[in-house]
Amino acid sequence: MNVGVLLAAGASTRMGRPKALVQWRGQSFFAHGVRALWSTCDVVIAVLGAHAADVRHDVEREFGRLVEAGDLSRDLHVANRHGSRSLEVQFVTNRAWSRGGMLSSARTGLASALRTRAASILLLPVDHPEVSAETVVHMSAMMAHALQAFGGRRGRDFAYALVPRFRGERGHPLAVTPALARAICRDKTSAHLSDAVRRSARLVGYMDVTDRGVVTNRNTPKQRG
Predict the structure, then answer these.
(1) What is the pLDDT of residues 42-94, one digit of tens each?
(2) Where do the domains of the chain lie, and which CATH numbers do they carry?
(3) Phi/psi of residue 128, each to 5°?
(4) In whole angstroms, how far apart are CA 40 and each of 32, 60, 120, 137?
(5) How far apart are CA 89 and CA 26, in angstroms?
(6) 188-211 residue pLDDT tens
């Protein structure tokens, strides 16, 4: 199974409100991220931190409205095709969000993902709402091919990362094997997620995409689109 991790714990000081709740094309950044990950992930783990209770309350109401409007029917159909019987989001809270940054949130999400039977894990920051479901599906497929090349199920024990690139610029989501996820969780010296990946990955692969969304992060009101 594939597990998605949506990183939504930051204080969003430049945005002026929780980025998870900012609207883009009629839905919150949070909803865009979860729905993109659902395209290939059996479960999405949402890592909250600042304003966790308010964010969870508002996004649960939003998804309730999407269900009532029938807007998630296609998502469920896609989930059924890749083997999921339902659309699932699990909420976890990063208590260290204010001092640990994205890396501490990634560790929180990865630790939760490792408690599942994940074959691969995809991490997506909530401020990348334009990442397309097609990109996520292609990332997942390429990771599956890599795992097969590394020895099938044994490939999970190979510390491997897959990174999308748009016109040579690295972006998100980041796909990792369970072995790399465990190494990142154990790493107590790196300051950033990219540092932890470089320290611990035995191999990093890149997938060139035409999806500008992988490098489009929205941090201020002017960048909401």
Answers:
(1) 999 999 999 999 999 999 999 999 999 999 999 999 999 998 989 999 999 99
(2) 2-223 (3.90.550.10)
(3) -120, 60
(4) 14, 21, 11, 6
(5) 20
(6) 899 999 999 999 999 999 999 999
